[in-house]
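Aim 2, interim progress: modelling of the zinc ion-bound target.
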Amino acid sequence: MTDKKQLRIALAGISHETNTYCQGQTPKADFYTLRGAKMLASAGQESDVGGAVDACVSQGFEPVPVLFASTQPSGTIAREAYEEFKEEILTGLTAAAPLDGCVLLLHGAGVVDGIEDLEGDLAQAVREVLGDIPITATFDLHGNATQFMADQLNGIFVCRQYPHIDLHLRAADAVAAILDMLERGVNATCHLLSLPILLPTTTTFEGVGEATLADLLDLQARTPCVDLSWFHGFPYTDVAHVGSSVVATCYPEQLEQAQVAIASFAQQLWDGREQFRARSLDAQQALAEAQQCDSFPVVIHETSDNCGGGSPGDGTHLLRAMLDAGLGNEACFAFLVDAETATQAHKAGVGSSIAIRLGGKTDQLHGEPVETTAYVKALHDGRLIMQHMFRGAPINIGPMARLVIDDMDVVVSSRRSQTFDREPFLAVGIDVHRYKYVTLKSSNHFRAGFQHLASQIVTADTPGLTTHQIEIFPRQKTKRRLWPIDSQASYP
Ligand SMILES: [Zn+2]
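Predicted structure of the complex, ligand included:
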């Protein structure tokens, strides 16, 4: 029996969902970093870092914090930024010796200028430094994974839920797997099957996503292996390995059954792919559908301008349609990202009226600015504590303003984020239960904070960088035919 008290487990990672269709690169300055005591202070938060720290502490291990660097989904990571973070992690791991194991906290869809597979590159470098001690990793289910990456790791633990409400639980699984390997004296290995599927963003809270996840968990319960994981994949990235994949983590004697299991699940995904096709309603169609509902509030989410997938969050297509429809005080919208307008409102102060050019400032795709007069109803510093997904973690969306435009409550933030829960509404005094139409920008994470209160959820797919219409994005890197953009796509 291994003495748990003496185990030292390093925690490190670079986590980024790279939308290669975004303009410009993501510089080092855009990342937030956690090191040392700051990383340990994530304990209690329902995040990958928090879950890993909690799992180490609860099992009597010593968590050894190295570096965690992350930022909002955005464009390709600048080479210099990645190399500096990577170097800091490798130096930190070397200095932390002796270590008994390492948990890498990753995303899976990271792309660096000149490096298509961030996670594979980082995992290989970490393996070279740490030798053959157990190295496991946690992932976002939106990762585009490679066997090369899997070959560097002894455990792959992908969050199962979308909204990702289980990141902390999967981090605990990644820690527990290391203990198991140390006790057995054998390392597990990871085996991946990649599917030529560009999966539209699919929640696991209902419908085909929920049913498919239930099937995966059932399969895992019947299969002797450490873990079965499903990467949905991230379609807004142009890399050779873009797509969905299924991964097994197993010990040598479990390999055959694990391979049968992932082959079976991969085939199920392929055979059932048409069920994942997403509806695409433009702003007017989405509003028309919402207005047919007879119980409220109806939550309308603009999936196509989701900062959580790399979009700017300042798109005006849905807002403009709502103003044109004259929804007035029946609707609230939180939030559009527009630092200029938020600053203007803070300078003018509560009770003033200001002439604004709201949103539509990042590019042409997401619409023109809305030029109008707005009343400044309330202001806030934008520092919030998340209450559903990432429960307990702080988020800073920058100075916020609650504006009233044609009797409609419209909230603006200064920093990019999707709306995860009701906190951005509550911060400026909005009780969503008092409105017929509650509007926000997010693809699925919002469901963790809204599904229980919405009478119905309507998806608006306006022109945007995270549209369901994934066929609009040019593909230069992938050599295989991909469903649903190529009718000739085939599997296996
Ligand atoms: Zn994700």
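The two ends are 43 Å apart (CA to CA). Residues 385 and 394 are 4 Å apart (CA to CA).
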